[in-house]
Write a structure and sequence with these properties.
Elements lengths: L1 E13 L12 E13 L11 H13 L4 E2 L12 H15 L5 E9 L2 E5 L2
Parallel strand pairs: 1-3
Antiparallel strand pairs: 1-2, 2-4, 4-5
Helix pairs in contact: 1-2
Length: 119
């Protein structure tokens, strides 16, 4: 089995409407995002997936989130948790790269707190 990983980051604000605690107040994060692809077969050039293609698609998706109020994005329905952000990014990458062997998306709110989405 082969796997590749790329990462990037974005900054955004959010609050969790259905959470009771400090995260219900507006605050921001410098998010780190890691995307993994995984598969058994190598394609052209002996690669599972071209790093540049995956990085480019990730940059496009993150540009829609960077410096945004995540609560204003309808897909999050007032609760833009790290888990939901990971799923959102995965789904948008799948739209851009339908044949890519995407495996997971990790979203770090802090260096020690991460949520993963893997179908």
């Amino acid at each position: 089995m082969y796997s590749v990983r790329v990462e990037s980051d974005f900054a955004a604000a959010h609050h969790l409407t259905h959470y009771h605690g400090k995260c219900e107040r507006l605050h921001g994060h410098n998010y780190r995002v890691r995307v993994r692809a995984r598969g058994e077969e190598l394609g052209d050039g002996g690669m599972l997936l071209d790093f540049g293609v995956l990085k480019g698609a990730l940059r496009e998706v993150l540009a829609t989130l960077d410096h945004a109020d995540l609560n204003a994005i309808p897909a999050f329905a007032d609760d833009p948790s790290a888990e939901r952000i990971a799923r959102y990014i995965f789904d948008r990458l799948r739209d851009r790269l339908p044949d890519a062997p995407l495996a997971s998306v990790d979203v770090y709110e802090t260096p020690t707190s991460m949520a993963r989405y893997e179908p």
